[in-house]
From TrEMBL:
Coiled coil: none annotated. Keywords: Methyltransferase, S-adenosyl-L-methionine, Transferase. One of its GO terms (biological process) is rRNA base methylation. It comes from the Bacteria. One of its GO terms (molecular function) is rRNA (uridine-C5-)-methyltransferase activity. This is Class I SAM-dependent RNA methyltransferase. The keyword Glycoprotein does not apply. Transmembrane segments: none annotated. It comes from Labedella phragmitis. Pfam families: TRAM, tRNA_U5-meth_tr. S-adenosyl-L-methionine binds at residues 235, 267, 291, 341. Residues 1-60 form the TRAM domain. The active site is at 368 (nucleophile).
Amino acid sequence: MADAPDIVDLTITNVAHGGVFVARHEGRVVFVPDTLPGETVRARLVDTRKKSFWRAETLEVLDASPDRVDHVWSSSSIERDPRDRAGGAEFGHIALERQRRLKADVLSDALVRFGGLDADSPLTRVAVEPTPSDEGGDGLRWRTRVSLHVDEEGRVGPYAARSHRVIPVDDLPLATTEIADAAPLHDRLQGATTVDVVASTDGVLVAVDGAASTGALHERVGDRMFSLEPLGFWQVHREAAELLSAAVASAVDADRFDATAPNLDLYGGVGLFAATLADRFGTGIRVTTVEAESSATDHAAENLVDIVGARAVTDRVDRFVRAIGREGDLARYRDATVVLDPPRSGAGTALVGELAALQPAQIVYVACDPVALARDTKALRSSGYELASVRAFDLFPHTHHVEAVAAFSRSGDRRS
Ligand SMILES: C[S@@+](CC[C@H](N)C(=O)[O-])C[C@H]1O[C@@H](n2cnc3c(N)ncnc32)[C@H](O)[C@@H]1O
């Protein structure tokens, strides 16, 4: 068989999960970055090993979408050789409004294809909401955490998309101004491998190879201060913690909330959503945060000290939930509210099934991956839960990422 030609002209038909777009070449799906539906691009086929799909890189736009704009980060521009385009702003060439519609399409499509929802269900028609300050804004200067890499010559920068090649850059336009100013973009850090730059209420911290100059950082959400490890998990957009906390608070159905039930904040980090529940329903509530990192749990215990019935547990969520099941004390959980905020891979079908077996009154799922949310939605729906609401937020402008908050209630329960 003759080799396929390297360079092809492709017409883009759709957006796919993961920040790439879909074209077809000789009947085969080709995933292409740096483009938009409706565009025709000249592209180089770069991965043709798989039978089911190939990958290509965009070299030139032959017929541009009206939603194409100059890239917000010149270091990622299509004018550059694909190998030299900085990663991390893969939607930066798209008008913000259109970025949000594309993210909504990916979420809707996932809920239908993997979540089993009807295509015409109103629950699949989710609008991706901007944060208050990004409304009408440019979607820049929001990142409070940036991880950079150092190459063998000591140059500091982000990786190129889908690569471990360090790209030296002059600016970090998605990062807050303090971070962009503090990042050692022009230094030579020979022998180092990573640089993390973190902005918190304590100022900006620059950590080379994970070495932080402080024991803890602090973040404010409303009237609450949270302490956390310098490089520990915290929501990345400067408005994310406040916005997600409000979204979780309003996703919880007050009629189903029982302050005396063993309520859970799973994948709890330093206790953000346990505090959300207490701020909405009073500091007399019972709530347990479960988190795998013991250092985060220590901070959670400190952060939740005013909540009389709060407990912070270090455990893997799957082990914790399985242990409840083994204890046979399931009845206590029938009145519980569960908030869960798993990492990108989602909670997983097995854990979701075990959680559903506890039959909590309601589950609020905070998701940073639409497909993982959709798969877990399917598992919850087949274990006796109904999807009651979904909201989505543009907490990662100019990237393909989207955050969603989904509320589930036990099927057959009636609101009182
Ligand atoms: C997306 S973060 C959410 C943290 C917290 N809800 C917040 O908003 O700040 C996910 C958290 O889950 C923790 N984690 C990851 N896998 C876990 C597991 N299997 N069991 C318990 N915690 C886990 C991580 O350490 C991280 O703190």
